[in-house]
Amino acid sequence: MSVGILMLVHTAFDRAEQVARHWTKYGCPVVIHVDASVKPKVYKKFLKALDDVPDVRFSKRHKCEWGDWGLVAASQSAGETMLAEFPEVRHIYLSSGSCLPLRPVQELKDYLEARPRTDFIESATTADVPWTVGGLDAERFTLHFPFSWKKHRFLFDKWVDIQRFLRVKRKVPNGIVPHMGSQWWCLTRQTLSAILQDPDRDTFDRYFKRVWIPDESYFQTLSRLYSSNIESRSLTLSKFDFQGKPHIFYDDHLQLLRRSDCFVARKIWPRAHKLYNGFLRSPEGAIKMSEPNPAKIDRIFAKAVERRTKGRTGLYMQSRYPNEGWENGMTFGRYSIFQGFAQLFEDFEPWLARATGARVHGHLFAPERAEFEGRQKVINGALSDAPRNRDYNSIAFLTNLIWNTRGERQCFQVGPRDEGAPVWFFAKDPNAQVSVISGAWAIPLFKSNLNFADIRKEAARLQKLENDQLFALRSPYAKARVRIWTLAEFIEAPMEPLQTIIDEIGPEKARRLSEVPKMTDLTGFGQFLQNLKNQGMHPYLMGDFPVSPGEVDQKKPPRKPYLVQ
């Protein structure tokens, strides 16, 4: 015998029995530790199930909780039993009840036989490991942790905060440098016995009992004192997600596990019958594998993490939806937003559709309804024009519209009346192209038949709302391509901005405009604005609009718009 197996078991006892029999069948003695939390009836049944296997022993039981000392105590007791009961064992391999051998046992024995003095244990200082996810690194060795992180999270956090405030710093025992690594190791008999029989073991145990997650640091630290040759890696394939939780392997991971060439893998789903039947077989039917190399499948796990945290472009998913800033692209594709154009031009929407071939909507966030193209009531993806449905989550409404009409450029109108429009969202969206003629909201008021007192009140309200929208579009956080003209600037020479907009939206080789939308008649508009001023309302978003229409110089070169790249 050259390899002894320690198994830490707390559930799935039928699978643990199956794996234990497999190890002993090919010459590896097994020492099993059963969690003290397991009911006596279940424990006795498990003992009886393995009565007929001569090379199986059971160690002293300890209560094991995640991140607690019990897991180290369990490993110590199982290791002591192995050293005492099986003196011919050269290497001791720590595993769990959910671990599964992936290669013939003889290959593991031959591999370790060729490396008689090598300890396989992941062991690195806190400064060298970047994988402490959502936890503590150096502080786990210098603070006290009397409370369970899982059962008493509030007390755990508060006690950490109190110790930080008081600047508590525990003294590390002389002669050791704290190291961290995977819980699953394979140590030589000399190294393990030196750790368990160390004269200072009581001192080390007292210290590590108040270390957080000591099963990832106790043997990893002490092995550095006694090992003459450490390979800082585990022979067990154990993968973790971005939250630090272990990946569970199912039947459809069969080929993936084969590619790893590792000797053992965890965690295996207890009902993964295909995996257990495929790997727990005779050596004759096994596939010959090479040097263990879990890095060969790291790319697949990295893609799984990317899919879980990012998802597909422009789509929201459970794993990242609550977290702002986790988007993989805020929307799926490019789209264009126009503000003030439909008010200035009488036939802007059909003209834009003809000029660009894009799908042109009205005011998608109008208070009355979502004005889809052709004023449809339902559009791709079963999106309804009902304002109640749209306003329940306006951002989801917009992102769903862009996704469900992928392949087509979407254009729609926005104005100060559209108070439910997610202006900050598309201001920060790099896919958005926003063109604004500020102050154009006054044109419908100019043409309305309302009492002037009502007009003045509505004008003041709309100007304030548009000013807030422009603040978002001009924000340093805005990533959309934004162009802003005042109404006075735009009507001086509308052709150039229209051509620029069409060039960006339309086909790659856009032609010069041969058709332009019809501009509404603004005769008397300047006087209308002056009347608003005379009544105490100052309309400043239109720019310097002349009172007399004859003062408009159509040959005057246009001013450059406010442009945000």
UniProtKB/TrEMBL annotation:
This is Peptide O-xylosyltransferase. Keywords: Disulfide bond, Endoplasmic reticulum, Glycoprotein, Glycosyltransferase, Golgi apparatus, Membrane, Metal-binding, Signal-anchor, Transferase, Transmembrane, Transmembrane helix. Its main location: endoplasmic reticulum. It is found in: Endoplasmic reticulum membrane; Golgi apparatus membrane. Pfam families: Branch, DUF5927. Residues 266-565 form the DUF5927 domain. It is a single-pass type II membrane protein.
